[in-house]
């Protein structure tokens, strides 16, 4: 029988992962066998400055809205499988060109000032809880290795400030760990790390296909259940690309690299944030959160507002 705190954390992980339109935070606990959950997530993000090495280039405003549908199921004990589909609405609202300007302005099909809609990458994942009082082996620390894949569903634009994503297949292997009731009953801590093998960009021939885009991602999630229904948390997510090209070097780069630089950028970013959830009923949760880039290279100064609903018709209990 699961403890009360364990039930709350499992409900948290069911909703938190599903409600995040793009970022999969650590999920150390797997819900009970035959649990089934669905979600709808929305996020609005915007930036007006681009980080290029030690420089911050202003005057490049763009925004995106993401609509996200997800589902997860526990077919056998300890094994969680997930799937999600995002729809992007993006817009670049900066200037199209400036005479004698050295800053790269509008340069993709979506950078025309209009809103563009794109169905992007199907996300699939599975995790198996090895350790934990609800895991395969009884242990105070919950440990769940996972595998995830991101597969483009359409040929959307990958160049420009309004490009929604890379358009490349990505497969990630990772490990999540969690503790509950740290110093106070109702608290929890989850940490995660994943290494992603990213498809090479081959449209530029050997010049682009020779560049590795593999990357590491790490996350931390510290939270507290104020009541049985209300939870608050602090989050942080870091991305570090082991390869790629830098915006600061484009001026001296070849024409091929300048043309295809967006999907092969060496993205590095740290995004702390806050989030909260509330259980409207035993089956329906609402989630809200905010995060922003506080450090990065080859990325914008993004600020992201997230909202989401998670519906769990089958708890497996």
Write up this protein.
There is one protein chain. This protein has three helices and 15 strands. The model is unreliable at 1-6 (pLDDT under 50). The chain has a twelve-stranded antiparallel β-barrel. The longest helix is centred in the N-terminal third of the chain and has 16 residues, at 4-19. The protein is mainly beta and 317 residues long. The chain has one domain (4-314): Porin. A hairpin with a 2-residue loop joins strand 1 (36-52) and strand 2 (55-76). Helices cover 8% and strands 50% of the residues.
What tags apply to this protein structure?
12-stranded antiparallel β-barrel, 50% strand
Secondary-structure element order, as H and E?
HEEEEEEEEHEEHEEEEE
Helix content percent band: under 10%
Name of the CATH superfamily: monomeric porin ompg
CATH topology: Porin
Q: What is the number of independent domains?
A: 1
CATH class: Mainly Beta
Outline of this structure?
The chain is mainly beta and about 325 residues long. About 10% of the residues lie in helices and about 50% in strands.
Could you give the topology of this structure?
Blueprint: H1 4-19, E1 36-52, E2 55-76, E3 79-92, E4 116-119, E5 121-128, E6 142-152, E7 170-180, E8 187-198, H2 206-209, E9 215-225, E10 230-241, H3 255-259, E11 268-279, E12 284-292, E13 295-297, E14 299-300, E15 303-314
Antiparallel strand pairs: 1-2, 1-14, 1-15, 2-3, 3-4, 3-5, 5-6, 6-7, 7-8, 8-9, 9-10, 10-11, 11-12, 11-13, 12-15
